[in-house]
Specification:
Shape: globular
Structural class: alpha/beta
Number of helices: 13
Helix content: 25-40%
């Protein structure tokens, strides 16, 4: 048993809470988004890289497993992953699980390396869209089996040139191409048409590429509407340069090679703001504070916006320097009288489930706008968030572009389904901290996709 108030079974969990929840401290787990990118960049390098990631998840493991199938040697250590670069271009069978990031990042990389492969998917992933990445890859020399087939097959050699991607569909397509195109012998140009939504995820990618010595320039064009343009030189070599803040100007290529032969380059995975958000929100809902350690306020992760949003709701947040790491802080969140707010979710879609829970306990009405892309996540999150809150007793309605949530001081509780969506399961669990009665969550282990130890960490604040 994890905790007397957490009755966890294979197909459900029943959550109650003590009369007084003491709060406590939880450490932020490594960022799934950052880990995917570091693992792929490390596998594209000729050197050996230690990707420090002591805690993993199904999605991170899916990327590591796929890279091994592609020819990389990856050793799991207590610190993380010791990655030896790709040495094979033989046909490969890849199991991406339910990880959309793994699929969309690796498809262009496979094409750039000319690796014939079949990719097996699980859950809703085969039905989630690949356009316009699919069409752009086919236009540049790759053959793909029809969208929706499982396994998805890829063959052929991706060619350099100009790629055009709608910035409002998925930033994952852009990341996949940014990882792939530097490997081609000739220069490429990636044009993002319209507004680049979820821009912070692209910034994570660019930061990782700089860390591995990849040169990409960015500009804007306004001839046919606003476009973001990335100029990507070909024939670039991935070589870990240490932390992105290291001064590369004073390091020669010979120094870098010598350093990499002596010992692995260290690439540290940041703390995960997307998952830290659940416990930061818990602090806003409880009478006693919750502290989350290992948060980097300088991170490009867009979900660090949770801090300012919780403050806007009315929570108090105090930051203290980390005792063990100069680059991170410990954030302590204390609740109070929360007020409904208006939120633009265009760049923070993964925060919507937990923000909706905070909204359900905030006085007045909260409106969450620009939610269209939530419909193509692990579940249709517009529908599943609305269903979750309604089953717990909240008033939540949706339109095509926004959620509207009427706040209350407490909710009755009830039974909800996670729909096998990790963020719905975790949001419902945090909601249970303020319900009058128990909350039963069906398919509770959906959390393993990104946060296998979620219920253990939840127990830390229950006392």
């Amino acid at each position: 048993m994890i905790h007397p108030h957490i009755q966890l079974q294979e197909d459900s969990v029943i959550l109650t809470h003590p009369e007084q929840i003491p709060g406590g401290t939880v450490a932020a787990i490594p960022s799934k988004s950052h880990a995917h990118r570091l693992l792929i960049a490390a596998a594209l390098s000729d050197a050996v890289t230690l990707v420090r990631c002591p805690v993993t998840s199904k999605d991170i493991d899916a990327t590591a497993g796929c890279l091994e199938a592609m020819g990389a040697k990856i050793e799991r250590t207590p610190e993380g992953f010791l990655v030896h670069g790709l040495r094979s271009g033989t046909p490969a069978r890849l199991s991406v699980g339910e990880s959309g990031s793994t699929l969309r990042f690796l498809l262009p990389v496979l094409g750039a390396l000319g690796i014939t492969a079949e990719l097996t998917m699980e859950g809703r992933l085969p039905s989630r869209p690949l356009s316009p990445l699919y069409e752009e890859m086919c236009r540049h020399g790759v053959t793909l089996s029809p969208q929706g087939t499982n396994p998805l097959r890829i063959s052929g050699q991706l060619s350099a040139g100009e790629y055009r991607i709608d910035g409002g569909v998925s930033s994952q397509y852009i990341t996949g191409l940014l990882l792939a195109l530097p490997n081609l012998p000739e220069d490429s140009r990636l044009v993002i048409t319209g507004r680049l939504e979820s821009r912070p995820y692209v910034d994570i990618t660019l930061r990782v590429l700089r860390q591995f010595g990849i040169r990409i320039t960015e500009d804007e064009e306004t001839e046919e509407g606003i476009s973001t343009v990335f100029e990507i030189p070909g024939s670039q070599a991935f070589l870990c340069q240490g932390h992105p803040s290291d001064d590369r100007a004073n390091k020669t290529e010979e120094d870098a090679v010598t350093s990499s032969s002596d010992s692995p380059c260290l690439a540290e995975v940041e703390g995960d703001w997307s998952n830290a958000a659940f416990f930061l929100a818990a602090g806003a809902l409880l009478p006693n504070p919750v502290t989350v350690t290992g948060c980097d306020l300088t991170s490009p992760q867009g979900d660090k916006t949770i801090v300012s949003l919780l403050q806007h709701f009315g929570a108090r947040i105090d930051a203290e320097p980390s005792e063990t790491d100069d680059s991170t802080v410990a954030l302590t969140v204390s609740g109070g009288t929360l007020q409904g707010i208006t939120i633009d979710a265009a760049d923070i879609p993964d925060l919507v489930p937990i923000l909706s829970v905070v909204a359900a306990y905030a006085e007045g009405t909260t409106v969450i706008r620009n939610i269209e892309r939530l419909r193509i996540k692990e579940s249709d999150r517009v529908a599943t968030v609305t269903e979750m809150l309604t089953r717990l007793g909240a008033v939540c309605t949706s339109t095509e572009s926004e959620l509207r949530i009427e706040g209350s001081s407490t909710l009755p509780g009830g039974t909800v389904s996670s729909h096998n969506d990790h963020r719905i399961a975790m949001a419902a669990a945090i909601a249970s901290l303020r319900t009058e009665g128990p909350v039963k969550i069906l398919q509770p282990m959906a959390v393993a996709k990104s946060y296998p130890g979620f219920y253990e960490d939840l127990s830390k604040i229950l006392g």
